[in-house]
Every structure is written in structure tokens, then in C-alpha cells.
Design brief:
alpha/beta, single chain
């Protein structure tokens, strides 16, 4: 999705450079599909070059050389999934999501029938996202250096980052000044860093009712975020059956987080905090 031309410059400016001092490593999963079909959500589709993402390694190492000549080189590792591999892995699950009904047989439990924009392809795309998150988490866990990471960020590679993403910065605007023509937030003079590693951060835009597009924070929170979704599918189905008012939510992405995943993270003793300054825009295959 226009990675080299649009995404990579924003990653260098707003992700790689702000975090260079932390000694971050980078683990990446990508889909090898070479076309992006129209999906009905203002996406015209187009040709893809999945190998563009490999240029991330050169960028990470270049920033490291600019800032630090002494510490070990960052790890940058990739893994991928072909469309055929995805279908083989998830054919049975996708059939279940399409056909499983509530106990009374009246409703398809995983179909988001209350949300008109959700189609069969939407559910497929959600499972692709879950697979990508779990794949990159497993790749990180298998790292050859034997490192246990205490702070992790799960970021998208199909967006342009408009503002800095510092993995420890939990600063939020403290006051809002309103005039006739604008509303202006004022930041504290010094950033607030989560030095005790107790807070998971999510964006505050596009909340339906929460934002599902990224998280950064303590290892335990991100383990649930990235690798704990499939294991909680039955728990989510049970929740929907206990609360008929949510039946039409099905596998709605943000509502799955709100009802099932975020409570699990909070039960692990981790605060989830929205960060208003995080902003990024999705890019498409046609560079729009």
C-alpha cells in the first residue's frame, strides 16, 4: 500500500527516530498479495508490491548509525503469509464464523448484522488482521537473541503517521483553549513517560466505541492484544449470548475489543489510556 513512497518517510520521522534511544527492535509480518481488491469502503484497490516493506530494515539501520555508533545493531526481521496459506489456515474458522448460530438458532452469532458496513469480506479482513498480529508476536517471541521485551508497540504498516509515536510517552493535552475560530490544546512542558511500565496506550480518534488500530504498552497488555484474540472467541460468543442487546455486534472489531479484549487487559492490572495526539491516515494502493 504505497509503503516506500508514503508510509516509510512517516515511519522514519515519527516512529523510528523518536524511539532510537530506546534500542528498539522491529518485527514485521506482511501479506504477499499483489492486488488489493475494491472492498466497498472508499477503497478503489490496485496493484501492490509487498516487497517494498523490506526497505524498512535499511531505514532502521540508517537511523541507528546517525544516533549511536556503540550499541548493537537493531534487529529487523520479517515474516509473511501468502493468500493460499491464509485460506488453508483459516478455512474451517471462516466457515464457523459464517454459519454458527445462537443457542436458539435464530441468529448468526458472529455476523455483525447491526452494522450495515460489515460484510463477509469484513470478517475475513478481521481474521487477517488477527493472524498478522499473532504472527508478528510469535516472530518476536522466537527472537534469536533470547530477549524478553518489557515494552511493545503493535503498529500498522499501511498508514501515514502524522504525529510522533514514542512508546513510553503517555502525555495528553491538559487544557483546551477555545476561541471563536478554533480550539487549541496545550501540552505540558515535559513529556510524561510511563517509567513504571503500567499503562497501555491507544489512539482516541475513530472510537466505535474504542479505537482498534494500534496499541503500545507493557508486554502483558500487548500479549493479550496481539496473541490473545483467537483464544477469546468462545468467551466473546458467550458474552453476546448473555447480553441479547449486543447480539447484532457479532465480530465487530472495535466492539470485540470493548466487550472482551480490553476487560482482559484490565484484569491483568494494566490501565488502558487514550492518547489524543496520536494521528495516522490509511493509505491505499493508488497512493490516495
Amino acid at each position: 500500500r504505497s509503503f516506500r513512497a508514503s508510509v516509510l518517510p512517516s515511519l522514519i520521522r515519527h516512529v523510528i527516530r523518536p524511539n532510537a534511544g530506546y534500542g528498539c527492535d522491529y518485527y514485521v509480518h506482511f501479506d504477499t498479495a499483489v492486488t488489493d481488491a475494491f472492498n466497498g469502503r472508499s477503497d478503489r484497490g490496485g496493484a501492490l508490491d509487498p516487497t517494498e516493506i523490506l526497505s524498512l530494515k535499511r531505514a532502521v539501520l540508517a537511523v541507528h548509525r546517525e544516533n549511536d555508533q556503540q550499541s548493537p545493531l537493531p534487529t529487523v526481521v520479517f515474516c509473511n503469509t501468502t493468500p493460499a496459506e491464509f485460506q488453508q489456515l483459516y478455512r474451517t474458522l471462516l466457515h464457523r464464523l459464517d454459519t454458527e448460530t445462537t443457542n436458539d438458532g435464530r441468529h448468526l452469532i458472529f455476523q455483525a448484522t447491526a452494522h450495515e458496513s460489515y460484510t463477509h469480506q469484513t470478517i475475513v479482513n478481521i481474521i487477517k488482521m488477527w493472524h498478522s498480529q499473532r504472527s508478528v508476536w510469535n516472530l518476536m517471541e522466537r527472537n534469536t537473541r533470547g530477549i524478553h521485551y518489557s515494552r511493545v508497540a503493535l503498529l500498522r504498516s499501511d498508514v501515514v503517521y502524522m504525529t510522533p509515536v514514542d512508546v513510553y510517552d503517555v502525555t495528553n493535552p491538559t487544557t483546551t483553549t477555545t476561541t471563536r475560530h478554533s480550539s487549541q490544546s496545550q501540552q505540558p512542558s515535559d513529556p510524561q513517560l510511563d517509567t513504571r511500565n503500567e499503562i497501555a496506550i491507544v489512539p482516541t480518534f475513530a472510537r466505535f466505541p474504542v479505537n482498534d488500530r494500534m496499541m503500545m504498552g507493557p508486554y502483558d497488555a500487548l500479549q493479550i492484544w496481539a496473541a490473545g484474540r483467537f483464544a477469546r472467541l468462545d468467551r466473546h460468543a458467550a458474552f453476546l449470548q448473555r447480553h441479547p442487546q449486543y447480539e447484532g455486534d457479532g465480530l465487530h472489531s472495535e466492539r470485540f475489543l470493548h466487550h472482551t479484549l480490553f476487560p482482559a487487559i484490565r484484569r491483568a492490572g494494566i490501565e488502558i489510556r487514550g492518547k489524543a495526539s496520536l494521528c495516522f491516515l490509511r493509505v491505499r494502493a493508488d497512493h490516495s
